[in-house]
Every structure is written in structure tokens, then in C-alpha cells.
Amino acid sequence: MTMFLITRGIKPADVLNLEPGSVPFPTSVIEMLSGDLGQPAGGWPKKLQKVVLGDRQPIRGRPGARLKPLNLKKVKDELSAKLKHEADDTELYSHLMYPEVFAEYAKFVRDYGDVGPLPTPAFFYGLKPGEEISVEIEEGKTLFIKLSHLGDLDKDGRRVVTFELNGMTREAAVTDRSVVAKAKGRPKADPADAMQVAAPMPGLITSLAVNVGAKWPRATNC
Residue 46 in contact with residue 58, Cβ under 8 Å? Predict the structure, then answer.
């Protein structure tokens, strides 16, 4: 709630003066003031509840009393199908407690991977040319990344980023989301599907050197 008020420029003292239901508070705030997480000693301030909830009625009594028993195995199987991998207990419980928040998180991880090891300023603001950061990907393994140069924008809305990885120069084409590309992108593969692999260039598969049931298939003569 604090972060929401800061981003909207709303001072805490002005919250109670808002028109009930006029501000789209985050789902987590609405659920908290509804009593989904329980009640604090003395209950929530009635006026604050009215501002946040609008016409929605708060829960009376124990929040879990209105919930039906869950088949955890069924929910876990359904979640695994959505994630396209076997969901672990942490993912299952996160999904049960905060379904919308977890869905956004899962999509972000699917698109960008685990960015937890990145320093916070680098994650939010990126690097400036000449700036270097260290990223510990696991115990005893640290990557040193230095941004060298940002290339010009091409017709597809991408820039060639030149950087150093542990002292070795690398390049990568990155989409600049601050501009609108003139050319329409054509994704080569679905990043959410582990069975799809994008080809670096157009080609035609003429034969597969495998048989039914073989492991580690390898395409040849492409």
C-alpha cells in the first residue's frame, strides 16, 4: 500500500479524504482490508475500509471459514500444466495465496529468467557505458559484466549492445522498448514451450537421424 501511494503521489494524510472506491488499490491491499488475512487487534479503521473497499463488504469472522477444502494435488497438476513444468510446493502455495501476483511473476521468470542475483540499481535502471557490476550466480561463481557501447537503432527497433563478460567482449541485439519498431516481429519459437528451439537462420529440415523412442534427437541436413 505504501508503494502504491508513493507512485500515485498520494499522501497518507489524504487517504481518508478519497472518494470510496474511486482509487484502484492493488488486489493485495483490498484483500488485506477485507479481512482475507485476518483482523488486527480492534479491527481495521471503518473509514479506511470504506475508502479502499467501496461497496464491497468486509469478511466477518475467521477468513478461512468461508473457503472450501482444496484438492492440493489437483491444483498442483493444473498449475504445472500452466507453468509447463512440475510446480514445486513454493510455487503452489504462492499461487494459492496470491494468484494474480504469482501469475505475473511466473511470466516474468519465463521471459527473462531469474534476475534475483542482479544488483537492484542495475535491474531498475540498467547500466551506463563504462559501468561494471558483479553478479554472483552461485557460490564461488561470480560474473563481471561491463557495458561498453550501445549501437544505433535499426529498422526492427533493436540495438547492438557491446559488453564485457569476465573481460571478454561480447555482443547482443536487444529490443529497445522505448521506441516503436517499424517492422513487425515474427517470433521463431515460444519461449514458454521447452520443446521448441528457435533457429538462428531460415532453413528446411530434410531428414531426422533418429528413430521412435530414441533419446537426444538431433536434426541433420538443415
Answer: no
